[in-house]
Amino acid sequence: MSLSCATQVVGGTGITPAYQFLRSAFAPSSASAAPFSPPKISIVYSSPTPSTILLKQELDALACQHPDRVTVRYLVDREDGPPPPPIKAGWSLWGSKPAAPALQSRGDGVLVGRAGAREMGEWLGRGTGSDQAGPRRVVVVCGPEG
Q1: Residues contacting 9, CB < 8 A, separation 6+
Q2: Any idea what the CATH number is for the domain that residue 108 is in?
Q3: For position 136, what pLDDT does the model report?
Q4: Domain boundaries, position 57
Q5: Does position 64 have pLDDT exceeding 90, yes or no?
Q6: What percent of the chain stands above pLDDT 90?
Q7: Pairing verdict, β 40-47 and 3-11
Q8: Contact, 58 vs 43, CB < 8 A?
């Protein structure tokens, strides 16, 4: 059985193992190694602000070098600058009051706001079920505690 797709949902410093996986998947193999076709790799990377995104240049370079195999989506909670006021008691970004802001594109590949179930379902894709033979996909979630 081979791995056809690897989706990594990461936050903050959780990008480090995802980046290591990505680099090793596309590293030149030795002549004695068996032929290897890297899986399609999708990274959904969340960070508090654009300036706290780690390894962005490196990730963008790998995505440009392998456009048919690598996709990186950056999500940030807010633009750089002072933090927003605290949320009032009884209000939730996940509940019905107030509604979470729609994702806004900055034009540099970074989306600002909260991704909903529709976006995450689209980005994570649909599984084939673990009881089916053939290529498989894996979803890895990694980030700092807290």
Answers
A1: 44, 46, 124, 139, 140, 141, 142
A2: 3.40.50.80
A3: 76
A4: 3-28+35-142
A5: yes
A6: 32
A7: parallel
A8: no
Q: Where does residue 76 rank: exposed (0-12), middle (13-18), buried (19+ CB within 10 A)?
A: buried
Domain count, the chain: 1
- Token pair listed for 19: 């980046």
Q: Is the pLDDT of residue 29 over 60?
A: yes
Question: Judging by DSSP bridges, how do beta strands 104-105 and 110-112 pair with one another?
Answer: antiparallel
Angle at 135 between CA 134 and CA 140, to 5 degrees: 135
Q: Which amino acid is at 59?
A: L
Span 97-115, pLDDT tens digits: 445 557 888 888 888 888 8
Q: Among 92, 61, 62, 76, which residue's Cα sits nearest to residue 12? A: 76
